[in-house]
Write a structure and sequence with these properties.
The chain is mainly α. It has 13 helices and 2 strands, in the order H-H-H-H-H-H-H-H-E-E-H-H-H-H-H. It starts with a helix and ends in a 12-residue tail after the last helix.
Amino acid sequence: GEIISKASTDAAMTFQDLIVGEHPPSGSELQNFYGAEDRRGILTTAGFLASNSTGEFGSPVKRGFVIRSALLCNPVPPPADPTDMQLTDGTGNNDQEIFNAHSNTPVCWGCHQLMDPIGDAFGQYTATGGFDANYAGKTSGTLTPGADGDPGGFENLDGLLTLLADDQTAEQCFALQVSRFALGRNETKQDACGIEELTTAFAASSYSVRELLVNIASSSMFLNRNPVVAGGQCR
């Protein structure tokens, strides 16, 4: 909350700052919880990590799912057939091994390959968001498995965050998600020109979060009803 609030008022704060910037916690209680570890961006906050856990487990599935669907605008499809998604305790020595045992079957892997390799980067964070360097078996993975060209591989969480901060899809998706929140609705065909203008202006502002909010409030999506005109051009 504090980081987002700062981003909405500080013109110098960018999308990249939200993802990889260092934001020392305020308040002694939070400082004691984080300890000496330097955390980068909103994805390493205890709020994000704890809210994307499953009971006592730090869930690579939930953490990867949120990044895939909310930050890359690439929703993960539900299973095609009824699938047993219950975890079986005692199948591994840590959270990763438990979840990997659950997903390493063909019927599961079709969807889990889109989430787990991303979520594994957070393997050193517990269900409550605490840090433990010995908690994970691995922190490497891929951002876009199976895609043509560079698969977006990373060795650790810093590598994943750096990829996301420089990823054009993530930048454009962030603009789209903020516009959805500000407008209180999803985009429609009538908004195509407005979205194009918004993402272009976001890039031109060096991805300033405050400028994005200003541009949304002054956009055609916010000010006008935009009818669809067959064969029409953005104007």
